[in-house]
Amino acid sequence: MTATEAGTGAGTPAGAGDGGRWAPGDHILWRYRANGRPAGGGHAVHICRPVTVVQDTDELLAVWMASGTECVRPVLADGTQVHAEPLATRYTRPRTTVRSRWFGSGVLKLARPGEPWSVWLFWDRGWLFRNWYVNLEEPRSRWAGGVDSQDHFLDISVRPDHSWEWLDEDEFAQAQRVGLMDAATAGRVREAGLAAVEVIRRWGTPFSDGWEHWRPDPGWEVPALPDDWDRAPSPTPS
């Protein structure tokens, strides 16, 4: 199914779905676990974004994060914004999470099952398409309330003229220096990035599917951030 075929619908409770699939208009959570192992073991969620399902099939999960969505994001324990901290200490100083609203233009996120990246679409005011953004990440795991992943630092920006560039290579290198990513994992991430570049060069899916022309249903409500946004994943619906 392509962008022009994707349906829309009214919001329904998170976890709704038929045969483990969500319907257009369902509200779910798109979450990322913190890199590294926190005290006490486990991987705590440090990014949570409520989104509206656009399409959920065997080939693609597409979701919309609307402007004004209340999200959870990491900050340093003293309140310093992560990217305001010098790179040398950005990943070693203590962190916490805060609630804040996404006030930029909305973001359309596209993810194919099993792929170690997702593709995000950004627009400027007036629906002027800005760029695609390839977020290299652990393949997403599905649960009843949404999807979970872990960011892999390295990213790729793709312009409307099909040109592209690597992003955040300094953060990718620093994450390895401070032990957030071992050499084997870093090698797999770089290989995933090169595989994504090959898709870009041949202009494969989802870049060629017309998603830049997609628009959200104006009747959709902005999903709420639940109090238990960091709850342990529950089984997917069956």
Automatic annotation (TrEMBL):
Stretches with biased composition (Gly residues): 8-20
Limits of the DUF402 domain: 86-204
UniProt keyword Oxidoreductase present: no
Region (Disordered): 1-20
Matching SUPFAM superfamilies: FomD-like (SSF159234)
Domain of life of the organism encoding this protein: Bacteria
A Pfam cross-reference name: DUF402
Keyword Hydrolase: yes
UniProtKB keywords: Hydrolase
Protein name in UniProt: DUF402 domain-containing protein
Source species: Streptomyces argenteolus
